[in-house]
Design brief:
Blueprint (H helix, E strand, L loop, with lengths): L16 H10 L3 H9 L3 H10 L2 H10 L2 H10 L2 H10 L2 H10 L2 H8 L4 H11 L6 H4 L6 E3 L4 H11 L8 E5 L5 E6 H6 L6 H4 L8 E2 L4 H11 L3 E5 L5 E6 H18 L13 H28 L1 H6 L1 H31 L4 H34 L2 H31 L3
Parallel strand pairs: 1-2, 4-5
Antiparallel strand pairs: 2-3, 5-6
Length: 414
């Protein structure tokens, strides 16, 4: 598809309004077309998609939000949906089909070319959260016994079929991964050089198909790769995870972390069943009830003083707000810790102790500031002392709760 996009011309008489809008959508970048389609009703989306070029429609649907995309594909005629899927890369096609109802998926499968159906069926067997679940099987795999010129000729023939033409993956006759060559190195090599002689002595970096997709994303980010090979248990090449997949993984993780910070399920959407949303949110709310009870207990310790000093009751929101703010800070740091690294129970609970220490230090500093301010304002030493002590204790509790809640939820499988 052309990279240069132009504004659509005035509506020509030979087109209907639907055809003209579809032609206009064809001239936009797929991501922009997806945004425009999502503003329309489902019926209008379907009407315009059916008038668009299949390749452009396929690229635009791949850019749509998951729930919008699923609803649209489910309403398409099976034959048209199959054409759309066949235009996509295998990993994108798999992402779409795995989210559809079984009956819809089977109708589309029945219309797919046998080769495409088998390839997508194989990918559907992988855990969607694993490297195998996000990998693309359209890769440049070259026999290690080829010379550079033979490899270049093969690359020319197959470059349109591959997901990313920056790396060539060198394999033996059993498809075992032997090395990776950049196309630059391949093009600059003498034509008679055998590929296996061009491989460096550096460690070959790859991931097994069953490793978590976030680990694959971490490796691509760490080593600045454009793609990372995925292998089976015998180190046979299966596919690659590409940098665009990493962007999707990072965005998905960021969304999950944002929702987790407020106790919603990481993969919860507005279309999720209410029972699922309830199951995801309730543990957080229950834990926060106990956290609030601890704060209430701190207030209860000074019940007699509060009864004697009405001003103390007016100052209580300061204690609650500072505890909440401290907890949110610890919560954000701990969620980032869990997101950026593998879950390490010992290290994470050390981090809880660190947050408690920070809460104590911050509580002492804030407590002293409040103590000084109240003493100057009210000249009431008992009142200033009670407020300072309550702030210090509650900020420690808030820090510990904010740091430990994500760990507790992680332990129970949330």
């Amino acid at each position: 598809m052309n990279e240069t996009r132009t504004s659509p011309p005035d509506s020509p008489p030979k087109y209907s309004s639907v055809q003209w809008v579809a032609a206009a959508l064809d001239t936009q970048h797929p991501a922009d077309t997806a945004d425009e389609l999502e503003k329309l009703s489902l019926e209008d989306q379907l009407e315009y998609i059916l008038e668009m070029e299949v390749e452009d429609a396929s690229e635009s649907i791949a850019e749509m939000e998951r729930h919008e995309r699923n609803a649209l594909v489910s309403r398409m005629p099976a034959a048209f949906a199959a054409n759309i899927v066949e235009q996509m890369s295998p990993d994108d096609a798999t992402d779409i089909l795995k989210d559809l109802d079984e009956s819809v998926r089977q109708r589309i499968f029945a219309k797919l070319e046998q080769e495409d159906a088998e390839e997508i069926s194989d990918l559907l067997q992988f855990d969607p959260d694993s490297a195998g679940g996000v990998m693309n099987t359209e890769i440049l795999a070259l026999d290690q016994n080829m010379n550079a010129q033979q490899a270049i000729n093969l690359v020319r023939d197959r470059v349109e079929e591959s997901e990313i033409p920056y790396y060539a993956y060198i394999i033996d006759e059993y498809r075992h991964l032997k090395g990776v060559l950049s196309l630059r190195d391949l093009l600059l090599s003498p034509s008679r050089t055998i590929l296996k002689d061009m491989l460096s002595e550096q460690n070959l970096i790859y991931v097994p198909f069953n490793v978590d997709k976030e680990e694959a994303a971490r490796l691509i980010s760490r080593y600045n790769f454009l793609a990372l090979p995925v292998v089976d248990h015998e180190q046979r090449l299966l596919g690659i995870v590409t940098v665009d997949d990493v962007i999707d993984i990072i965005q998905e993780r960021a969304s999950e972390d944002m929702q987790s910070m407020v106790g919603a399920g990481g993969d919860e959407t507005v279309d999720s069943p209410w029972t699922y949303s309830l199951r995801m949110r309730l543990p957080w709310l229950i834990i926060n009830v106990f956290n609030s009870a601890l704060s209430a207990f701190v207030v209860h310790l000074f019940e007699g003083t509060i009864a004697q000093m009405a001003l103390l009751a007016a100052l209580m929101p300061i204690v609650a707000n500072q505890a909440g703010n401290t907890g949110q800070q610890s919560l954000a740091v701990m969620i980032r810790q869990l997101a950026m690294e593998r879950f390490d129970r010992k290290k994470s609970w050390i981090a809880v102790a660190r947050e408690a220490k920070l809460g104590a230090v911050n509580g002492s500093i804030i407590g002293l500031l409040v103590f000084a301010g109240l003493l100057i304002w009210t000249h009431n030493l008992p009142l200033a002392s009670v407020m300072a002590l309550a702030l210090g204790i509650d900020m420690v509790i808030g820090a510990m709760a904010g740091a430990s809640i994500p760990l507790i939820l992680k332990e129970i499988g949330r």
